[in-house]
Write the structure tokens for this entry.
Amino acid sequence: MLTVDFSRFPLAAGDRVLDLGCGAGRHAFECYRRGAQVVAVDRNGEEIREVAKWFAAMKEAGEAPAGATATAMEGDALALPFPDDSFDVVIISEVMEHIHDDKGVLAEMVRVLKPGGRIAITVPRYGPEKICWALSDAYHEVEGGHIRIYKADELLGKMRAAGLKPYGTHHAHGLHSPYWWLKCAFGVDNDKALPVKAYHKLLVWDIMKKPLATRLAEQALNPLIGKSFVAYATKPHLPVGAAQ
């Protein structure tokens, strides 16, 4: 399940891509399949080891084209171990809402992104996330949980302040907001509640089979209750506001 829309955020073969806070690796794997030179970074060592195993399995199965490379490593988003201007593309998906110093993370991403490079940032959307917080304290009070809810203009403003030039936005995962509302209403750790179990089955069916009915439903729901807000931006060759 991808949050970044690669039809709006296309990759070229050989692009050097940083997936920051890669988690289980969903975007990193897709970039690898598309021929990129991928570096997946996360602070969770266990997840990084699993991502590395999947990269190796994909290579063995021939899922990545010739020239594609993939590396998984532990790292700190506030102190990335890369020189300036290292990457053509940076992706950070559902991470910034967890980090206190989001401006610091933005500064690091801009530092390692090449001039003319592109960045995709996804965060929980304000409306659906606000409902989750209202329904359940446990949803956001867990250690390492969400510490803020971004409004779209707030995130775009921080991106501009960091020197980025946003060029597109959209919403994603409209089918997933009701699932999380149910989870929050019945208890975030209560997977046995019948409505939660039934809706989870629907989501798994949608992810695995991609039936036309649910695909059309999600397209209709995304502008209204899409769970994620997605923003795309470039790093100008000159700092924003500099004389041409």
